[in-house]
Design a protein that fits this description.
The complex is a heterodimer of chains A (113) and B (110). Chain A is mostly beta strands. Chain A contains no helices and eleven strands. The radius of gyration of chain B is 13 Å and the shape is globular. The chains are: A mainly beta (113), B mainly beta (110).
Chain lengths: 113, 110
């Protein structure tokens, strides 16, 4: 089955700095890579995703990159703000069929004002 | 729109007691449903998934079981809770390619 590794487990940055979270996956058949943000005590919510036919996707201050050959993908947050503080999860899955997303262990991002 | 309802939000149970967590989904039919457990530092671990009524697949051996008695209902159960069952349990559904989550249940076994 799929195995997703996520690093770092904790990331502390100053407000305005950039933050990068990296994930690797094992199943070359995976073709969909979502990122979820979980604020304290709340449910994870999708913030951005990328499909295997795209190398990069941006949405305002967040961007994701995907390297299919190396089987890794990353989340980039620029101009971080205190409200970006949360746990971020990457996931890998194969669209269609039973569709079982496999999640990384999460990164706790702390943005210091 | 599709939403997941999960209850209770918090639960404190003694060791050896039974467990029943219920999850229902609105706004879609024949959804894929999932139970995840989130333990500190361990991310989201898939426990069970279901593609339809009566169809349950288990990802890890454990003290828990799941049932899908109705199309939009997914239940997580245990006959006798262990201390190690403590954690944050999330029910999730599938919306196209997106997994969307319920609000979660914080289970503390004492």
């Amino acid at each position: 089955g799929e195995n997703v590794e996520q690093h770092p487990s904790t990331l502390s940055v100053q407000e305005g700095d950039s933050a990068v979270i990296k994930c690797t996956y094992s199943d070359s058949a995976s073709n969909y890579f979502p990122w979820y943000k979980q604020e304290l005590g709340k449910r994870p919510q999708l913030i951005i995703d990328i499909r295997s036919n795209v190398g990069e996707k941006k949405d305002q201050r967040i961007a994701v990159t995907l390297n299919k050959t190396a089987k890794h993908f990353s989340l980039h947050i620029t101009e971080t703000q205190p409200e970006d503080s949360a746990v971020y999860f990457c996931a890998a899955s194969i669209t269609g069929g039973s569709y079982i997303p496999t999640f990384g262990r999460g990164t706790s991002l702390i943005v210091h004002p | 729109s599709q939403t997941i309802h999960q209850w209770p939000a918090t639960l404190v149970q003694p060791v050896g007691s039974p467990l029943s967590l219920e999850c229902t989904v609105e706004g879609t039919s024949n959804p894929n449903l999932y139970w995840y457990r989130q333990a500190a530092g361990r991310g989201l671990q898939l426990l069970f998934y279901s593609v339809g009524i009566g169809q349950i697949s288990s990802e890890v051996p454990q003290n828990l079981s799941a049932s899908r008695p109705q199309d939009r209902q997914f239940i997580l159960s245990s006959k006798k809770l262990l201390l190690s069952d403590s954690g944050f349990y999330l029910c999730a559904g599938r919306r196209n390619t997106e997994a969307f989550f319920g609000q979660g249940t914080r289970l503390t076994v004492v």
